[in-house]
Each structure stands twice: as structure tokens, then as C-alpha cells.
Design brief:
690 residues; Pectate Lyase C-like; 2 domains
Length: 690
């Protein structure tokens, strides 16, 4: 069948914007080199790295300019709202105006099986990894367009009807919609289909989702027309019965880097894999099929091209026919090696801690509104009130008694900054599309000589120091780029990116980047309380890189362990130095991961600062994902003090690094877990929502 003439314009803006943002941050997608690919073929990324940042706009067919819609960006141009109830969700999802709707926590529908109709120009995104839709879903009707459904768990309408004959209760149903992006969701245990793309729904991209524990995973078709164009990439389809996916009468279906897993020990048997039905043209690239019966095959009138996939323990049909189409004629894309797909997707599919923040940060009104509402603006080109963050902080009135906002425009600010204790209520807000666009960085270390003599010491090495209460930082990167390798002979490699020594501190959608001692969460003085919330953020380092005596909650965040300066693996995440009558560090709904050797990093060790045996260090990791970097025995001694004498524990963690409970892995009981919550940690302080 010849390819019809394209009905759209190739759109590159989302890809270019993402790459530009990453370049500012000093990072890039691993191994992406599209320009070097021969004959327009896609490039392969180096294994096995997740993207350095998640994009805010769709790729694939959903990115194209067609049917009067230029790409898929959802509610980018409208207001951002946060919802916690079905009533609020329904109000904004059905509104005529564009909205970015953040779902904070689990929303259980009043009527099982309801599908809230979603109007055009909407983004619905889960906050952190907590956003859930329970016993219901979403419906996109004819003509609905420019919709993003992202970073949600949609679950549990299943009522015992395995075939789904008695109910049409889908997680996501689309009838005649166009320009839709379904990304980073976990869809499970519904009463009909997890995703139904019906009645000529087109310009659809489905990416980085986890579909599990269900009969009908992903059905496409319900039409005699052959017009729909769909991209399906980086999805983990696990323990599902059928429609994995089944694509009927689809003009162009491009599937790449998907992982289909049928667990022989599970209760569900996968009937078949990727099925090209009717007159579908399907291109299947670099997939991974594990224990799947009939992994891919076409109907007699369909065309199916396969290249680069791995068949692991499969049986039955793996058949191709025809030439289908060339996806690279329509959009740019990058392939991951098929053999890396299982590890990549186990880590990267479903809700991620930083997706919501990246999505919200890209809203079109964010930059202008922040700058317009700010008391001072810092810009490196001189267009603001100051070119230096430190100068702006110094301009804040001493004794300030109300919130004071400094907007920091994109740029790299190479300086040290101190917020003294007489400048409370300060807000530092980056106006860029992601935290990396506004970076405050310096390279002092503990052993660096001070201009006035002596060395800086650990706390003095901080790029940014906060000593004022009620401080907030949003959408910024704090970095210390001290070069350990170049200063191998120097004593004192501790190099702090951000030090807080204050109470009621909120760090939201920030990056703290360093090696040893990246993030120092301290108190104003010994015996005082310093409460800190770190949320929707990334903290990066290798040795004791979250440390200090503060009462801190690290929530919905990425804890990224890195290699040492010599390339070796090995280190510690947390080094709490908690007073006996205070709470220490609580890591919740977060991820510990990194491109390091398996089992080479500990969750932490107790820091009895100055040999003070009266301290009682505390660190708890709960409801978090620990990848294989974490050691089987995740705690260790420090400075002659045994870890067993400290308050170190886990609760309900998952992932390859979670291990089995035992003497080396003390677990909280359910009763104890009720006392180890952010609310218990913060007492009479309720941090303001972002």
C-alpha cells in the first residue's frame, strides 16, 4: 500500500526546546546524536541512562502540526491549579479555558467507573508520585485536542468481570480526539480497557507508561477508516491478557523501545503481543519481548516491519510483511538499544518524582508572572534590577517582615550567596523552564584557602548559605563544581552546594549538585530546630551528600548517586547528626538511583559530629524506590560509632535495591510508620503548597 501524502507539517520545536534547556543545564540526553544518523535514520542512545530531564511537550506523531493544532502542549498557556477532590478535578477538566491541573494525592470517584470528560487544551498531571485516580478514568470525545494526561496512577475499577463485558470502564478512552499525549502513567486493574484509542483518534503519542495486571491493555481502532497516526514508545506492558497493543486500520503505527513481559509465575497469560490488524501499517523497532506468545504478527492486509528487537523466551508467531513506512520522514526520534530496554523501563516508566515540576515549569505564563510579581529581578544581561544574586539578596531590607520575592532569570551565576538571619521570608524563584536554566555555582571546598587566611571548612564551602527563617527556593540549581581530580593532593574535599541553617525552609523543584557533602541541612545552632522540606527535586552526590542536624523531609524527589572522581563507585547518601530529642531525615516517595556499580552505595551512616555521643542520628527511607545501586546492607558505621546505635530504618521500599528485611535492614512496623510522616516531623508547621 503506498503511503498517502502527509497532511501536516513536521514539527521540531519540542525537541529543540528540550535540547536547548538541557544544554543550559550542562546535561543532555545520553548518546543522542540525531544529526549523525545516516540517511535520516534515528540515533541510538548510550546504555542505560534515563533522559537528563523529561520534556514538557509531546514527541512523535502528537508533536506534528496538523488539523489546525501545532503540536501537543496541553494547558501550557493557561493557569496552573492544584486539585485534591473529584469536584475540583471535574470543574477544571471540563472548562473551556486552558488549564494545567495538578492532581495532589489520591482522588477516589464517588461513582465507580465514571470517566470525567476532558476538554481541549488541558494538562492533567500527578504531583510527585502521589497523584492517583481511583475507581474511575477520563474520556476524550470527538474533536477534543491538545490534551496531556501525565504522571498519574489510574486504578481499580475491576469488579470481577475479566472479559469486561458488563462495563465499559476504561482508564483512558478516546473517541475521535487528536493531538493527545499519554505519558508516565501507571494504569492497572480497570474494568474494560486501560487505553482505548477509538474512532479515528489520531496524532497520539503514548510514552513511558506502565500497563499491568489487566486483561485488555491497549486497543486501537473501532473504525473502517485508515487515517490514524500513533507513536507508542518506551512503555512497559506487564501481565496483561490481550491488546498489547492491537492496532486495527491504523495508517501509521510506530512502536519502539517497548517492553512486553509475561511472567510465567504470574496469574495472567499474555495471549499475544503487537498485532497489526486490518489495513494497519506498523513499524516495530528495538522492542523487548519476554516470555510472550506470538510476539508480533500482521493480518493478511496489514504491513508490519520489524527491526532490532529482542525475543527472550518467546514462542509462536514473529512475522513481518510489506514495507509499511519510514517514521523518520515524519519526526526525529532516538532508539535505545533493545537489550537495555527492560532495565530502562523498569526504572523510567510510570509516575516519576520530577515530571510534574518539569511540566508546570514550562507553562507559558510562569516566567512573565514570576517576574511581574517579583520585588527584584536578577538577569545576567542587565535587563533586571541586578546581575548578581548576592547583590539582590543584599538589597532586601533588613528585618523584612513579609514575603520578598527575587526572580532569577536564566543564566549561570558564578558566585557565592549568603542569606543572613535578618532577611527572613525570602523567596528565590527561577523563571526558566526547568531548574537547570538558572544555576548558582561556585567551587570552594573545605580545604580551599580563604583570601584572609585559613581554610573555608565544610560549612564555609557552601555556594549558597541560608540562615534566615521562612526561606523558599523554587526552580533553581545550586551547584558546587569543585574539581576533586585536579585537587587530589588537597585535604578537605567536602564541597557544599547549599547549606540551610534556619527553620521553615522549603526547597521545591530544585537541583542540588555536587560530590561530597552536597546538601547541608543544618540548624541555626546546636539544640535549636531547623525544619526543611525538599520536594519534587534532585539531589546529586556520592559521599554523605545529604547531611546535618536538621529535621528534614525529602519527598517526591530523585536522589542520584554518582561515581567518585576516579570513576569508582562507593559512597553514602545520608549522614544525619540529629539531636536525641529531635526528628532527623525522612525520605518518602522518592527514588535512589544512579549509573554506578550494583550494591556500591549505602543509604547512610550516623554522624556523631565532634564525637558527641549524646546525639541520636536518625534517617528513615519509606515508600521509596531503591535501585540496584543500594547495598544489601544499606547502613554502616561512622567515626567509631556503630550504625545500630542510631535510628536508621526503612518501610515499604521497592526496587532491586530494597532487599529483604533482616538484621541489616531494620523495618518500621505499621504502627511505627504512622509516627514517621511529614506531619509528625513538622509539628505545627504546614509548608505552603507550591
Amino acid at each position: 500500500m503506498p503511503n498517502p501524502t502527509p497532511r501536516y507539517h513536521r514539527r521540531r520545536t519540542a525537541l529543540l526546546a528540550s535540547c536547548a534547556a538541557l544544554a543550559v543545564a550542562g546535561t543532555a540526553l545520553a548518546g543522542t546524536a540525531l544529526a549523525g544518523a545516516p540517511d535520516g535514520a534515528p540515533a541510538e542512545r548510550d546504555p542505560v541512562a534515563l533522559p537528563a530531564a523529561w520534556p514538557a511537550e509531546a514527541d512523535g506523531f502528537a508533536s506534528l502540526d496538523a488539523l489546525g493544532q501545532d503540536g501537543t502542549y496541553g494547558g501550557r498557556d493557561g493557569e496552573t491549579v492544584t486539585v485534591t477532590t473529584e469536584e475540583e478535578l471535574r470543574q477544571y477538566a471540563t472548562a473551556e479555558e486552558p488549564y494545567t491541573i495538578q492532581v495532589d494525592g489520591a482522588i477516589e470517584y464517588a461513582n465507580t467507573g465514571d470517566e470525567i470528560p476532558v476538554a481541549s487544551d488541558k494538562t492533567i498531571v500527578g504531583v510527585g508520585t502521589s497523584g492517583e485516580i481511583v475507581v474511575g478514568g477520563f474520556f476524550l470525545g470527538e474533536g477534543t485536542h491538545n490534551v496531556i494526561l501525565r504522571n498519574l496512577t489510574i486504578r481499580d475499577t475491576y469488579d470481577g468481570d475479566w472479559e469486561g463485558k458488563t462495563h465499559d470502564w476504561d482508564a483512558i478512552q478516546m473517541d475521535g480526539a487528536h493531538h493527545v499525549w499519554i505519558d508516565h502513567n501507571h494504569l492497572t486493574r480497570m474494568a474494560d480497557g486501560l487505553i482505548d484509542s477509538r474512532k479515528d483518534t489520531t496524532y497520539l503519542t503514548v510514552s513511558w507508561n506502565h500497563l499491568s495486571e489487566h486483561n485488555k491493555a491497549f486497543g486501537i481502532g473501532w473504525t473502517e477508516n485508515v487515517t490514524a497516526e500513533i507513536t507508542i514508545h518506551h512503555n512497559w506492558i506487564e501481565e496483561t491478557g490481550q491488546r498489547n497493543p492491537s492496532a486495527d486500520n491504523i495508517a501509521r503505527a510506530h512502536l519502539y523501545n517497548n517492553y512486553l513481559l509475561d511472567d510465567p509465575a504470574g496469574d495472567i497469560t499474555m495471549s499475544y503481543g503487537n498485532y497489526a490488524r486490518g489495513a494497519t501499517q506498523m513499524v516495530l523497532e528495538n522492542g523487548y519481548f519476554e516470555n510472550v506468545r506470538d510476539p508480533y504478527y500482521p493480518d493478511p492486509d496489514a504491513q508490519l516491519v520489524e527491526r532490532g528487537s529482542v525475543l527472550d523466551g518467546t514462542s509462536g508467531r514473529a512475522e513481518t510483511q510489506g514495507s509499511a513506512f519510514d517514521p523518520s520522514e515524519f519526526y526525529d526520534y532516538a532508539l535505545d538499544p533493545a537489550e537495555d530496554v527492560p532495565a530502562l523501563l523498569r526504572q523510567g516508566t510510570g509516575p516519576q518524582a520530577d515530571v510534574a515540576a518539569a511540566t508546570v515549569a514550562a507553562t507559558g505564563t510562569a516566567d512573565a508572572e514570576v517576574a511581574a510579581d517579583a520585588d527584584l529581578v536578577v538577569s545576567p544581561d542587565g535587563s533586571g534590577d541586578h546581575t548578581s544574586v548576592a547583590d539582590a539578596v543584599n538589597a532586601v531590607p533588613a528585618g523584612n517582615d513579609a514575603p520578598f520575592t527575587i526572580a532569577i532569570e536564566p543564566g549561570v551565576y558564578r558566585e557565592t550567596v549568603k542569606v543572613p538571619s535578618d532577611r527572613p521570608h525570602l523567596r528565590l524563584v527561577g523563571t526558566g523552564g526547568d531548574p537547570g536554566q538558572a544555576t548558582i555555582v561556585y567551587d570552594n571546598s573545605a580545604g580551599t584557602e580563604r583570601p584572609d587566611g585559613g581554610n573555608y571548612g565544610t560549612s564555609g564551602s557552601a555556594t549558597v548559605t541560608v540562615e534566615a527563617d521562612d526561606f523558599q527556593a523554587t526552580n533553581l540549581t545550586f551547584a558546587n563544581d569543585f574539581d576533586e581530580a585536579a585537587n587530589a593532593d588537597q585535604e578537605g574535599h567536602q564541597a557544599v552546594a547549599l547549606r540551610t541553617a534556619a527553620d521553615q525552609v522549603v526547597l521545591r523543584n530544585i537541583v542540588a549538585d555536587g560530590d561530597q557533602d552536597t546538601l547541608l541541612l543544618d540548624t541555626a545552632s546546636k539544640g535549636t530546630v531547623g525544619r526543611v522540606l525538599v520536594t519534587d527535586s534532585t539531589v546529586r552526590g556520592n559521599v554523605d551528600f545529604v547531611f546535618g542536624r536538621a529535621t528534614a523531609v525529602v519527598q517526591s524527589s530523585e536522589i542520584e548517586v554518582t561515581r567518585r572522581a576516579d570513576g569508582s563507585s562507593g559512597g553514602y547518601v545520608a549522614a544525619p547528626s540529629t539531636a536525641a530529642d529531635h526528628h532527623g531525615f525522612l525520605f518518602v516517595d522518592s527514588t535512589v538511583s544512579g549509573d554506578v556499580e550494583d550494591g556500591s552505595y549505602r543509604l547512610g551512616r550516623p554522624w556523631y559530629a565532634g564525637g558527641d555521643a549524646s546525639l541520636h542520628p536518625q534517617a528513615v527511607f519509606r515508600d521509596s524506590t531503591l535501585d540496584a545501586a543500594v547495598a544489601d546492607a544499606p547502613w554502616t558505621d561512622m567515626g567509631g560509632f556503630p550504625w545500630t546505635g542510631a535510628r536508621l530504618a526503612e518501610y515499604h521500599n521497592s526496587g532491586d535495591g530494597a532487599g529483604r528485611p533482616g538484621a541489616d535492614r531494620p523495618q518500621l512496623s505499621d504502627e511505627e510508620a504512622e509516627r514517621h510522616t511529614p506531619e509528625a516531623w513538622f509539628g505545627d508547621w504546614t509548608p505552603a503548597a507550591g
